[in-house]
Amino acid sequence: VREAGGNGSFTFDEDGESFVVTFAGGLTEKVKTDSGEFDTVVSTVQSTYFDVRGIKELRVNFTSDEFKIPVLIRFRTVKGQFVCKLSGLTVEEVKTVDSAPSPTPTPTIQPVATPKPKATPEPYIDNQPLLRELAFELGETLEYKVTSAGQETAKLILQAKERKRIKEIDTLVLTATVSSVSSANRPFALSDSVIARVNPETLAPQTSETKF
User: Fold this and answer.
1) Strands across the sheet with 151-166, in order?
2) What is the pLDDT of residues 92-108, one digit of tens each?
3) Rounded CA gap, 101 and 106, in Å?
4) Can you tell me whether residue 49 is helix, strand or coil?
5) Region of residue 191 (left: phi > 0; alpha: psi -120 to 50; beta: else)
6) More confident: 181 or 186
């Protein structure tokens, strides 16, 4: 959605049923959070998935810059209005291994037949940079403060955690983790999490784990 600038239709499956969710950018809005003040574009979100679950007026505010960071998420239910505000943004420096081979001395020519060289695969390097077309960088961490009826209920951390080979497949690991909850909190428990393993270039999902 960030890569598409907060606009477009996307499909997903839940409990064996397919759904379509549509994002439509519209009005601009200045949003102030614990991380600062942002110029944003409001994207309204619609899907029958939300309708049958009683989720109404779902809106996401994406920053107006090239990164399209979601800084504000709002929706209503019969229990009231839920608000998620960005409270932290960091991009960690990810160390990469130098793939350049070390120079080797020139061998002495011997009067023997030279065997046909065998092609060797290039070594895999963990945490290679992501494509520039994606709206985020490897190591980006977003922290959201979730409130219900004006009271903080939890803090949620989203992270582009790492890129590595999993089961011989180049994989980007995305995580969402509840880092803290209030004593009166109901929707979340500490360490509730979602781990998604996706294709680093297309973001197509490979596997996901949900703990609630």
Assistant:
1) 8-14, 17-33, 36-46, 56-63, 70-77, 80-91, 140-148, 151-166, 169-181, 193-198, 205-211
2) 776 666 656 666 666 66
3) 14
4) helix
5) left
6) 181
Q: Which residues on adjacent β-strands are paired with residue 197? A: 173, 207
pLDDT digits (tens, 9 = 90+) for 108-130: 666 666 676 776 777 889 999 99
Q: Rounded to whole angstroms, how far apart are CA atoms 195 and 125? A: 22
> What's the rounded Cα separation, in Å, for the pair 42 and 74?
10
49 φ, ψ to 5°? -60, -45
Are 194 and 178 within 8 A, CB to CB?
no
pLDDT for the residue 117: 73
Tell me the backbone φ, ψ of residue 194, rounded to 5 degrees.
-135, 130
Tokens of 167: 């089961």
Q: pTM score > 0.70 for this model?
A: no
